[in-house]
Design goal:
about 180 residues, alpha+beta, 4-stranded antiparallel sheet, 3-stranded antiparallel sheet
Amino acid sequence: MTDAPLYSFTSHISGKNAKVQIYRDRIEWERPRGVSGGKITAGIMTGGLSLLATGVKNGKSGTEMIPVKNISSVTTRRDGIMNSFVSIITSGNTIDFRVSHGEAATVKTVVTDLILGKYDAAVEAAAAPVPEPAPTAAPGVDVTEQIAKLASLRDAGVLTDEEFTTKKAELLARL
């Protein structure tokens, strides 16, 4: 099984856009390094000296991960006209993902299904071998008549005793 994400989206987390991926066992997000509006403003006001001193990109980048087994709840709440927060609640932390209203519903559904184990059940059902149906006698076929025909083939030397016994057992199992 490949470790492909179930769902991916971009969210605003702690003032930065982050790429979020939901897997069967975890939620991961990465905040890329970028230039903040405040840093650009300070650079313009100081004639670029602050950018030279501190660098263009800030150091608040990185990745984080929450194991699904640590998630206790997922909620949504509106944040203005266009966005909602999806709050992932764990025993020690709450992470708010800010997304559009429509995407909030999708994210909440995917995470809720993970918490409830619905994806695990789907994987187990897909991986379970499908039992072959038990052979049944064709309608209108008399098993005793078939055994008698097999016996005559055995007596004529067309079938061996072993072949006759095997076929007889198959026919009797269909009863």
